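re: the backbone from monday

yeah here it is again, tokenized this time
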């Protein structure tokens, strides 16, 4: 049996929660707006409900981290922004103290991610931008790793295909800004295929698949559409328009005459023409391999470790 009276027990519990200055309900609980300085040095200012953080509030950690947003029963829940000590920041949806839903994360190295989250991990559809190279990954994520249909966009070309464990796999294509495409497939060596079952638990040990080209499309020449300024000899715009209309009419008449001549010529062509040799086959596009630019580096392990550490919530007033 405890030797403390009810009043002494309440005072001890209040001391455990730290100093508090704010509104209370009829039962003496922290209820409404208030400010608390916790025993561990953290500070909270915001809404309370029955002594629990509930509603909008600001929690400042002694480590330098800070959360500004919504709470539900002492847990980050709703929309909020978390500022980490290393300068990184997450702004978005929270559920049960975890990043969950849509959110935007700015990493300490300047990289950014905007997209879906699930249980503190990038999960679903999202866009990751690498600040150093300017490259951009747009597509699927599973438990923080690039996976599914996606597009990896570089400065002067892009790759479109499937990703698994952060690397491209299977069929895909490189699209170059100069106007051509390189179609092919990422395949694993026979040696890696033999080791795949043995190393399923750690796929990172497998060598990166190699790109095999199957087709290169023709180069499409692109010319800028620059309007020519009329010379003084062409006269005013109205006269130029009239001249263009007359030229168009003449072109229509010439086309009609040509079609008539063709019809007359076709009428006297010998039927044996149907038995002529077939037209020569179209020139096949060369499948000679050329090496595309190297893919942007996958997010390094240090960045992943930082995020995992930062994803673990700081212990505050619980």
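seq for it, each position gets an aa:
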């Amino acid at each position: 049996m405890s030797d403390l009276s009810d009043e002494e027990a309440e005072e001890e519990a209040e001391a455990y929660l730290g100093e508090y200055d704010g509104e209370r309900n009829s039962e003496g609980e922290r209820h409404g707006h208030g400010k608390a300085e916790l025993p561990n040095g953290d500070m909270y200012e915001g809404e309370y409900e029955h002594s629990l953080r509930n509603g909008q509030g600001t929690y400042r950690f002694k480590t330098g981290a800070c959360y500004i947003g919504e709470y539900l029963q002492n847990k980050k829940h709703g929309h909020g922004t978390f500022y980490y000590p290393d300068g990184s920041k997450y702004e978005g949806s929270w559920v049960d103290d975890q990043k969950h839903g849509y959110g935007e994360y700015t990493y300490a190295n300047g990289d950014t991610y905007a997209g879906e989250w699930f249980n503190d991990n990038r999960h679903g559809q999202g866009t990751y931008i690498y600040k150093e190279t300017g490259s951009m990954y747009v597509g699927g994520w599973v438990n923080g790793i690039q996976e599914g249909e996606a597009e990896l966009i570089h400065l002067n070309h892009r790759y479109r295909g499937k990703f698994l464990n952060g690397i491209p796999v299977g069929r895909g294509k490189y699209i170059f800004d100069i106007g051509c495409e390189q179609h092919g497939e990422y395949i694993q060596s026979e040696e890696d295929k033999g080791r795949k079952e043995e190393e399923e638990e750690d796929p990172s040990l497998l060598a990166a698949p190699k790109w095999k080209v199957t087709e290169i499309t023709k180069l499409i020449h692109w010319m800028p559409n620059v309007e020519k300024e009329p010379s003084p000899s062409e006269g005013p715009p109205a006269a130029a328009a009239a001249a263009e209309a007359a030229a168009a009419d003449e072109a229509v008449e010439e086309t009609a005459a040509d079609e008539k001549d063709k019809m007359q010529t076709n009428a006297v062509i010998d039927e044996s023409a149907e038995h002529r040799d077939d037209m020569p086959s179209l020139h096949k596009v060369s499948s000679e391999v050329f090496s595309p630019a190297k893919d942007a580096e996958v997010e390094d392990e240090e960045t992943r470790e930082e995020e995992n550490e930062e994803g673990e919530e700081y212990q505050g007033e619980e």
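The longest helix spans residues 237-267. The radius of gyration is 34 Å.
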